[in-house]
């Protein structure tokens, strides 16, 4: 039976991918820096390191497909090293299909984070392996993390005249798992959340849901980055395939927090 490896399988996106693969009765393997948790119905787990290459060769052995979800937001240049190591071992192992999730507008937004994602896309395209690249808009989980930190102050700054289209990581995972059943497709249409709203609207919804007394204030973001954000480069308005709205996500996670 074909086996799919998920890198970063314990992360925000990767854990949803693993859960959906298991639900679909796919033979599933995980590569993560963390020790193995207990997954329902199980997944073969490799604790390794894409940066050093530790156990990457063993993890990709006998795999048909690799879904690359691993990313290091703190040391972004590592993403390029990690992708290079993964693709090298995947090629050596005869992997037929490598799948990468990237970011909408990464090749047009002047920030190191987005430029790194674009560079990794290039590695996949130049690898000689059958590949599929899906760009997604910002995850609800990322927006929540940013606002959790920002709302510790009485004033929450948000970029003025900026629209966002957040999507649930679970919705992106669902799309990624669909690719496992088919052939490599190269760059596929982007995927975005179901709604396009201003950054200030999204922040205010968060503050209300969390009962935080801080106030969202729009701040003009200067330079090329501010111009790129205001021009809508983060959006995929023609691809509102995500199911869960930001408000629905906030209701769900607020209930979960109260239940802890």
Automatic annotation (TrEMBL):
Residue stretches making up the NAD(P)-binding domain: 8-181
InterPro entries linked to this entry: ComplexI_NDUFA9_subunit (IPR051207), NAD(P)-bd_dom (IPR016040), NAD(P)-bd_dom_sf (IPR036291)
Gene3D superfamilies in the record: NAD(P)-binding Rossmann-like Domain
Taxonomic superkingdom: Bacteria
Coiled-coil positions: none
Pfam annotation, one family: NAD_binding_10
GO MF term list: protein-containing complex binding
The protein, known as: Uncharacterized protein YbjT (DUF2867 family)
Species for this entry: Lipingzhangella halophila
């Amino acid at each position: 039976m074909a086996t799919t490896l998920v890198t970063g399988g314990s992360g925000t996106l990767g854990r949803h991918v693993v859960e959906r693969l298991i639900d679909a009765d796919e033979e599933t393997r995980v590569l993560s820096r963390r020790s193995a948790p207990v997954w329902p119905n199980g997944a073969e787990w490799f604790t390794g390191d894409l940066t050093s290459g530790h156990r990457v060769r063993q993890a990709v052995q006998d795999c048909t497909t690799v879904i690359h979800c691993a990313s290091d937001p703190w040391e972004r240049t590592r993403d390029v090293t990690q992708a290079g190591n993964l693709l090298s071992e995947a090629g050596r192992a005869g992997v037929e299909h490598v799948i990468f999730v990237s970011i909408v507008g990464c090749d047009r937004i002047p920030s190191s984070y987005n430029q790194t994602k674009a560079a990794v896309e290039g590695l996949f395209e130049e690898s000689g392996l059958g590949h599929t690249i899906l760009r997604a808009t910002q995850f609800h989980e990322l927006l929540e993390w940013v606002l959790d930190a920002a709302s510790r102050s009485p004033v929450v700054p948000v970029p003025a005249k900026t629209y966002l289209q957040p999507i649930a990581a679970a919705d992106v995972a669902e799309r990624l798992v669909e690719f496992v059943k088919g052939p490599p497709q190269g760059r596929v249409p982007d995927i975005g959340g179901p709604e396009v709203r201003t950054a200030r609207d999204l922040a205010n919804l968060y503050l209300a849901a969390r009962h935080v007394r801080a106030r969202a204030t729009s701040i003009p973001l200067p330079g090329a980055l501010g111009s790129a954000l205001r021009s809508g480069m983060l959006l995929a308005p023609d691809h509102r395939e995500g199911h869960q709205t930001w408000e629905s996500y906030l209701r769900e996670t607020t209930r979960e927090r109260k239940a802890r």
